[in-house]
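Entry for the shared binder. Reason: the reviewer on the internal report wants the predicted structure included alongside the sequence.
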Amino acid sequence: MPTYQQPKYAVRERERSAARRTHREGKLSRSSRYTSSLPTLQEVLHRLGIGFQKLFTALHYRFHQLTAGTLSEVRLPWFKIALAAIAFFILTQKNIQFSINMRSPLSGFSDDREPEEQAEQMSLAQPISFRSASTATPAVTASQVSAYVDRFSKVAQTEQDKYGVPASLKMAQAIIESQAGQAQAAKSRHNHFGAPMSKRIFDSAWENWRAHSLMLVRYFPELAERQAPAAEWATALQQSDLVRDKNYSKKLMATIRQFNLDELD
């Protein structure tokens, strides 16, 4: 390369280097400005502390405003009160519902076995209407009733041992009310005992059977205490305000006889 071109080339390289350096410095400057604009963890905590302090002050002022200053000398744990208020606000805003889930080792007895279909039909009485109007009962096969009894016999006997309610009586009620487990309420809500249980959704059939036992003991503590026979329970139910069907006790006893449910007692 001729010597007369070297100074010109060197000047051009210096200009290019200076331009690249200026570009890099500009990028670093913009990056540092962006980074400096982000709040640090300490600043976030500081802002949260200021917000809580304002909230506590507002709650304190509101409390004394409501009490007209009569409790101004009383020293209260404002921090705990404020936390409780915040928790209450969150719960009420989200409308969180809590439910007690009852579990039992007997749940294995109430499985979802499908009964065998047979042509033989069994005509049950009109479903018992606990405080509600009755509807027509669809035909239920004898095999469906037999499978239903097999499914819940141990549960019924356990409830009898624990609460003194005859297993035959509870089984007869469940067969009539749930149409041997074929009623929609039994399938979708695990409710096998009609209207008294209709306002609740049960997690399992066992939970429904237990709730029904507790209800009967509440209504008829004397019968439960002396473990009265099914006939006395049927008469007591007939005379109570739980049923509207005038033939309720007759239907219960007829169901017990028809399917030999007294063998469960």
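Summary line for the report: The beta strands are 121-122, 140-141.
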